[in-house]
Amino acid sequence: MDDLNFPGWRPERSIQVVEADGLTRVLVNGQLYMSWRSGDEACVRLAIVQLHQCGLATEQDLAEAFGRHVTTVQRYLRDFADEGMEGLVSERRGPKGRWSRPRGCVEAFC
């Protein structure tokens, strides 16, 4: 049976991301690879980088498994190569402190 393309059949994915009970788990070929508390974005990014560096998945596979765009996966890989783990930890964008109007500035003109 060389042709496995029959209705309803899908090949098993080698990388699966499962979220349940407040945990995110990554399975590789059905075996637990990593787990972490759900919502930890740095762990998601690290898992993507590790899986790629270990040769367990392509950029496209990882994008599909983690629900990211392939260019986002590529950015994680580049950031890790450039800066290590610090490159994967997202920083808050925009102003870092409290914003205030310059002295003497009238609201309508600022």
Can you give a write-up of this model?
The chain is an alpha+beta fold. The protein has a domain at 15-84: Homeodomain-like (Arc Repressor Mutant, subunit A). 35% of the residues lie in helices and 17% in strands. The protein has four helices and three strands, in the order βββαααα. The protein has helices at residues 41-53, 59-66, 70-83, 85-88; strands at residues 15-20, 23-28, 31-37. Strands 1-2-3 form a three-stranded antiparallel sheet, covered by helices on one side. A hairpin with a 2-residue loop joins strand 2 (23-28) and strand 3. Helix 1 (41-53) crosses helix 3 (70-83) and helix 2 crosses helix 3 (70-83). The longest helix is centred in the last third of the chain and has 14 residues, at 70-83. The model has no long low-confidence stretch (mean pLDDT 83).
| Assigned CATH architecture of the domain at 15-84 | Orthogonal Bundle
Strand % is 15-25%
How big is the Rg?
Answer: 21 Å
Low-pLDDT stretches:
none
The overall average pLDDT, rounded, is 83
| Helix content bin | 25-40%
CATH fold label of the domain at 15-84: Arc Repressor Mutant, subunit A
Q: How would you describe the shape?
A: globular
The total of beta strands comes to: 3
Task: Set down the secondary structure blueprint.
Blueprint: E1 15-20, E2 23-28, E3 31-37, H1 41-53, H2 59-66, H3 70-83, H4 85-88
Antiparallel strand pairs: 1-2, 2-3
Helix pairs in contact: 1-3, 2-3
